[in-house]
């Protein structure tokens, strides 16, 4: 993760970056992603809702298909798959 930001890549893809972390470490990583990723496109693959909440746009997939897209607030208002998670 550090290399991607130090390289100053315009697009960063991160797959389950917080999967093996405890809550405190995850919170620290999420804050860091929020500040370092401001002027970049960050594609974050995650199963943790606490990480997804930070995204401007969330794409929800079920069985390999996109079932919903939107911000955290928009998806909660839809009362669909995301809100049930």
TrEMBL record:
Biological process according to GO: oligopeptide export from mitochondrion
Transmembrane segments: none
InterPro entries in the record: P-loop_NTPase (IPR027417), Type_1_exporter (IPR039421)
GO function term, MF aspect, one: ABC-type oligopeptide transporter activity
Protein name: Uncharacterized protein
